[in-house]
Design a protein that fits this description.
6 strands, elongated, 4-stranded antiparallel sheet
């Protein structure tokens, strides 16, 4: 008997699994290969067992996963990653230049979302009322661990950031232009091979993409620990 553990909530899936699925299926049009890859990546099914599954079960499982990936998202400020409580940047309009530069270099491709999450979420230091502090940004050398974060949290953050954050970033960049002559700032930007004008244009392009609804149609279900559905063949 073959048992297939099926995710029933978006947070049963990790960001890394989505990235792996996208990479493996890029340019693939064969529906059977797509279904096989979906079960292999999201259900951890050994591909040698795929042909032994009932066709109806395969169809039901794949439709269920597709439904999860298209659930309406919402934003979560906190989540736990490998035992550490992580928190979303408290104020997007106070992002540092180091964060700005790395956000621009990361882009908005799914394959780089773990780096984006490393910038947006960092360990929680302390809370006071409804406010809180997080660790200072130290770059994304440890970004690979964010591949293990719940996919629902990541998708909610992506949609929230591009819908709200891009406007805040553009407003802040207007004020930053006033100090572009500052030699320290210029040195930091030149070191990374870009300038404020280039970065502003990049954010405007992202905003245009949002207006055309070109964000990946992956969304968020709900937060928490969930039981997974099991199919027996």
């Amino acid at each position: 008997m073959i048992k297939v553990i099926v995710p029933t909530e978006l947070n049963d899936i990790t960001l890394g699994q989505l990235q792996r699925y996208q990479k493996l299926t890029e340019g693939v049009e064969d529906q059977d290969i797509l279904r096989q890859t979906m079960l292999s990546v999201f259900c951890d099914l050994d591909v040698k067992h795929y042909d032994k599954l009932h066709a109806q079960h395969v169809k039901e499982i794949c439709l269920g996963i597709e439904s999860l990936l298209n659930t309406k998202p919402y934003h979560e400020r906190f989540f736990t990653l490998e035992g550490v409580k992580m928190a979303f940047i408290p104020n997007l309009d106070e992002i540092t230049m180091g964060e700005y530069v790395d956000l621009e270099s990361v882009g908005h491709e799914v394959d780089n979302w773990h780096r984006l999450m490393c910038i947006l979420y960092r360990p929680l230091l302390k809370t006071f009322g409804n406010r809180y502090d997080i660790e200072n940004y130290k770059g994304y050398d440890n970004a690979s661990q964010y591949k293990q974060m719940p996919l629902g949290v990541a998708l909610g953050a992506v949609v929230f950031f591009w819908n709200l954050g891009s406007d805040l970033l553009l407003d802040t960049l207007k004020s930053l232009k006033q100090v572009e002559k500052d030699e320290v700032l210029k040195e930091h930007l030149l070191k990374n091979g870009l300038g404020l004008a280039h970065f502003t244009d990049s954010l405007k392009e992202i905003s245009l993409d949002l207006n055309r609804s070109q964000i990946y149609p992956y969304t968020l279900a709900s937060i928490g620990l969930h039981m997974k559905q099991t199919y027996s063949n």
